[in-house]
Amino acid sequence: MKMVKSLLLVSAAGLVAVSGAQAADLPVKAKPVEYVKVCSLYGAGFYYVPGTDICLKVGAYFRAEYAVGTFGASLTNLDATGADGQRTRISGPDYQQRARAFIFLDTRQQTAYGTLRAYMNVGHSSDFAANASSAAAVYANRAFMQLAGFTWGLATSYYDFYSSPATSYSVPWSSDTGDGGWKIAAYTAQLGNGVSGTISFEEPRRQIVSNQSLGNPLGVGAVIGSGDTTKVRMPDFVGNLRIDQAWGSAQLMGAIHEVGGGYYGTTLTGSQGNGHPNDKIGFAVGAGIKINVPMIGPGDYLQAQVNYTEGASRYAATTPAAAGNPGIFKGGTSLGAGFFSDGIFCGSSAAGVVGCPAGTAAGQSVQLTTVWSAQAAYEHFWTPSLRTSLVGAYTDVSYNATASAQMCTGQLTGGLNLLNALTNCGSGSFDWSYYSISSRTQWNITKDFYVGLEGYYGHLNTMSKGQTVNYTANTGSAQPTGTRTLADQDVWVYRMRVHRDLVP
């Protein structure tokens, strides 16, 4: 009997062992697959990130451009600065290609304080550099977060209203920071009936403050003006009041901007004992409007903006960038020039200093530069897929009598790689302006793919028109040293663009 019981126990143990082995060989039951779900809270193209309540949208665009004209190496800055303005057989290409590709991520999430948004736009752009193709530059022009009316990061300045890319491929001078983005920290209050107000701390829009005692007061050719600007010590303060309605939109805006010079004297270093000019506050004010005119054509609209600035010139013209002074040659006889700045100063803690007008009193202040500008564009839809825009822009730069006298004396005594011996210097002789007219026609072959053509004309009304200068060439400059007559200059650009959006 004991033997029988032992056999039964052994058999049972064997069955259990076999059963366990077979169970181990069976596949483990997979967890349920969490499929991507559409998020309909924020419009088309959003999906829930699996395992979260975050909605995500991914998109991209691809662009190729081809251009000919007298613009030089950049398809963004058409003002002909540096070597591009020398217009010789070896300086600044007359044909240009550019390729861009960007991808964006847009995320939204509901919180106790409203929708939390985080947005990024990153890609690469490949342009010409001098007369050869450049390496692709990777950069981001959007990287911001928004919650409960607050915006932080790299977005667009809240001063801006007029949108250059909406109606132009080329860049007419305006306040628009949209292409490169702008660093901000802002709060927007919705006041009802489409009215909103924003206050914003923003990256300073700095042009140079020029010390005329340093020589080289103007930058023409491959050099720039002698910047002697204080370090960044505070943000720009920007505010706007905006209304958006069915008829269109409008905005009033303003900005406060610190303007300060370095030290008096003829050097940037070792001059602290000379004292310095008092800081000043520059400002900008502007107004913009967009009017829908469907009675002329469905989708038609007019957009416009005007700006007035003192000591805050980049609110009138963000492009060209800081110290982007036009210097455009024509043949071997004429030259057109202009000088961008936020302010001019010259002097010392004691009366008189080299490079300043005779009798200059001690403690001279920074003389703020006045710049005003206006931009307008009309877009007409011939059909839902075919549109044409007409665009105009004007920028005017002027200096008061004190600044002009300081710049004139600096020209006569400095003359470093610059314009020397400008004849008949006097009040207003350094004033100049620039205007452009362009037209773009675009065919949207599909809603996400278009081909467009644009013609752009720019005109530089030179400073000191008709006067002569002794131009001193920079080392390696394509334009030789010699006498030039200051005359107006023109810029022409013809551009083709092929563009594809990829949006879910």
Brief rundown of the structure:
With about 500 residues, the protein is mainly beta. It is built from three helices and 27 strands. The strands form four sheets. It has a 16-stranded antiparallel beta barrel with strand order 2-3-4-7-8-9-10-12-13-14-15-20-21-23-24-27. Strands 16-17-26-25-22 form a five-stranded mixed β-sheet. Strands 11-18-19 form a three-stranded mixed β-sheet, with helices on one face.
Write down the CATH class: Mainly Beta
- Quickly give the structural class: mainly beta
State mean pLDDT (0 to 100 scale): 83
Overall spatial form: globular
Radius of gyration: 31 Å
* Integer tally of domains: 1
Sheet of most strands: 16 strands, antiparallel, barrel
How much helicity do the residues have? under 10%
Strand order of the largest sheet: 2-3-4-7-8-9-10-12-13-14-15-20-21-23-24-27
Share of β-strand residues:
over 45%
Which fold does the CATH topology refer to?
A: Porin
Count of DSSP-assigned helices: 3
CATH architectural group: Beta Barrel
CATH-assigned homologous superfamily: Porin
SSE arrangement:
Blueprint: H1 2-25, E1 47-48, E2 55-69, E3 95-111, E4 114-126, E5 128-129, E6 132-133, E7 137-147, E8 150-155, H2 164-167, E9 182-192, E10 195-202, E11 209-211, E12 236-245, E13 248-259, E14 280-292, E15 301-310, E16 327-330, E17 334-337, E18 343-345, E19 367-368, E20 370-383, E21 386-398, H3 401-413, E22 419-420, E23 432-446, E24 449-461, E25 468-471, E26 482-486, E27 489-502
Describe what this molecule looks like in 3D.
The protein starts with a helix and ends with a strand. The protein has a 16-stranded antiparallel beta barrel. A five-stranded mixed beta sheet has the order 16-17-26-25-22. With about 500 residues, it is mainly beta. The chain contains three helices and 27 strands. Residues about 1-5, about 5-25, about 215-225 and about 410-420 have low confidence and may be disordered. A hairpin with a 2-residue loop joins strand 23 (about 430-445) and strand 24.
